[in-house]
């Protein structure tokens, strides 16, 4: 057995259990158990004879000595076997228990001996006190012997890293699309791993680590694997959550084992996913401190400081919560660089769709550009999921190729939920039709609004009808664009009020009001689009529980807060009045579109705009007037 503190501890534990077991038992109990075992065998002879034959035997004197067991219910005696010329031990079961048998034996002068009832209560004490500790000792010997295949304590503390010593990650830069800027940045790391002498010749030290920041699904892990594949070096991967255990010191020990593994296989890529699980700010106090997690983070900081410049190990970490990371982790010398991967633009989404469509049978008439235009704000993982859902819908329909219809259905399903049953009630169906047409018509007639993609009465999720717009991707949004979106969002409630009156408006616009309230507040407090002083009136405040940028609070006096509310109300009321004015001027067009939608249940964007363009040649409506 291996030597060490755990082995000695368990040996002493087993020995104490055995000693306590012997002390607990009494010697008399041991003798009773032994006697009971003997009696149990004697009270169950191999042959039983009838009770009448037994009575005749004692009356004739053939039976001169008997043994009584089980409270005189079983009688055992010896008889002479004339065939084999030997004594044979037989028994008889007494049908009823009474004292007449004892009297009869005394009357006939038959010697008898009464034995106690067989019990195993004391035997169980021996088993529990002796056998079970011996069994534990046997299992312990199997776990910690020299030839054991599993090291219990070693496996508990070692990092469960996925090491690919052949560097065959199966991923290259060709498999990563939509993040060309990040790929160009990481080509430098590939050059260092392949040709380190080029950097050392000019005195350049390689970066020790890099943190990849970005929303979930943008390809952070995929990019790290591509670096290892391009550089042809081992790839060691571990998640940040695997460092933290309930045992004190296990996380720090795993960090040491992980970096020792990286040293043995350098040059290599060491990838830590979700590093925010252990890299959060230290010493926050008030319930936010985890000493074990902080010790693990301290060990990571110490290991990265101990790297030699020519060790050939590049640590890559990924997270989508950079706001909660400890500042000591981000300083140069540990993680020298921070590379942000944003959501892909339309060109990036086209490239991502091409990569994920290589193994799918997509119709040649399907344009990936149209899919990319409709999926603004989608990540690479979202786009892969869309194509997979489209393939599932195609298989369920027994079709051979994936068409644009299945892809659009997959997008609708992922964004809004499963498709429901269209309303049969003509009144409710007509009301929902006017609500959705109000959104689409107001947005179409506004100058800076996004184009209509589809208007439908098919329910999805909790919505009884939906109006889809194709957003234009722009890095900056003007006040006119934001105002147009605000007016278009009010189009549904404005249509209900115009057509059905104040008393027939519904709660279907509740989600629209949340969007309007959020947009108007940002225009006043963050974007400076009001008559108040051009300044940010709500700034992010650091919190010890939620990071540095998640909670906002107003940085203004109370009288300014009242003016902010007044400005928000003015923008909202002006937007609603604009929406009502647009729909009232085009009441006939609103009625015709609502009737058409009620009949065919879905109108695509091109048909909708063509219908509006053929009916009126009015110019686009003006957006919100500037507030004085």
Question: What features would you describe in this structure?
Answer:
There is one protein chain. The protein folds into four domains: 71 residues, Signal recognition particle alu RNA binding heterodimer, srp9/1; 179 residues, 3-Layer(aba) Sandwich (Rossmann fold); 71 residues, Helicase, Ruva Protein, domain 3 (Orthogonal Bundle); 190 residues, Methane Monooxygenase Hydroxylase, Chain G, domain 1 (Up-down Bundle), CATH 1.20.58. The N terminus and C terminus are likely disordered. The chain has a six-stranded mixed sheet. The chain has 23 helices and 16 strands. The radius of gyration is 42 Å and the shape is elongated. With 628 residues, it is α/β, with parallel strands linked by helices. The termini are far apart.
For the record, the CATH architecture of the largest domain stands as Up-down Bundle
Q: How many domain regions?
A: 4
DSSP strand (E) fraction? 5-15%
Share of residues in helices:
40-55%
Major β-sheet strand ordering: 6-8-9-10-7-11
CATH homologous superfamily title of the largest domain: Peptidase M41
Average the pLDDT over all residues and give the rounded result.
Answer: 76
Based on Cα principal axes, name the global outline: elongated
* Structural class by SSE content: alpha/beta
The level 1 CATH classification of the largest domain is Mainly Alpha
**Count of runs of 4 or more consecutive helical residues:** 23
Rg over CA atoms, rounded to whole Å, is 42 Å
Main beta-sheet strand count, sense and barrel state:
6 strands, mixed
Poorly predicted ranges (pLDDT <50, ≥5 residues)? 1-5, 146-153, 285-289, 544-551, 622-628
